[in-house]
Amino acid sequence: MDIANAFTDGWNIYSKNFITIILSFLVAAFLSIVTIGVLAIPLFTGFQMLFVKAKRGGEIELKNIFDPLNNFSNLILAGLIMAALAAAVYFVPMIFIFLNLTAVYSLLYFVGLLFLVYIFICWIFAFLLIQDKTMGYKEALKASRDLVLKNNFWIHLIFLVLLGVIGGIARVIPVLSIIFIPLAFSYIHGVLACAYADEVK
């Protein structure tokens, strides 16, 4: 992974297609909220694909964010697997709280968090692979893991930390966050998509 290249390409696409990018992000966010998150994964996958398409020299339009609705079931199933793992890490160790085994709880919770960090980093490209390569959810989860491990897991960890820093900065001034969050998070999604486009060649 070339981190600098992902950030540069993301910015170039973002700045050249600013109106389309921002409008697409706002529509995706609004419809995600209205549908109580049901359409969040397909719409934001479609949003990320705008950057992938632009990076490959294609023209992008707001309506493109709706393309992943054709892969709704695979995208949702991949998301449900991720959510189930997160829930298991949170709830399973709590059994030991009721058994007064707090040391066991703490150990399992810590190990579980490390596992979640590892697996979610490995799966960062799964949604894009489902849409871009028309993969099933199982195939995409495996392909994403293989891609990340092939191109250095630790670089991907650093990459996601940097994206997290950008997201954190957008929240620093609460009064202005209503402006900064859409700007920052649309860019974050774009950088991730550009990193994907580089690695999946």
Short description, anyone?
With 201 residues, the chain is mainly α.
Written description of the protein model:
The model has no long low-confidence stretch (mean pLDDT 89). By secondary structure, the chain is an all-alpha fold. Helix content is 76%, strand content 0%. The protein has one domain. It has ten helices and no strands.
| Approximate helicity band | over 70%
- What composes the largest sheet? none
SS field, number of helical segments: 10
Mean pLDDT: 89
> What oligomeric assembly is this protein in?
single chain
Shape: globular
Instruction: Estimate nothing, just give the exact number of structural domains.
Output: 1
Number of strands: 0
How much is the radius of gyration in Å?
18 Å
Q: What is the N-to-C order of secondary-structure elements (H for helix, E for strand)? A: HHHHHHHHHH
Strand percentage: under 5%
The helix-and-strand class reads mainly alpha
Low-confidence stretches: none
Termini separation (Å)? Answer: 12 Å
Topology, pairings included?
Layout lengths: L2 H14 L1 H17 L5 H16 L16 H20 L3 H4 L3 H21 L3 H7 L4 H14 L2 H17 L7 H23 L2
Helix pairs in contact: 1-10, 2-3, 3-7, 3-10, 4-6, 4-7, 4-8, 7-8
Note the main attributes of this structure.
about 200 residues; globular; single chain; mainly alpha
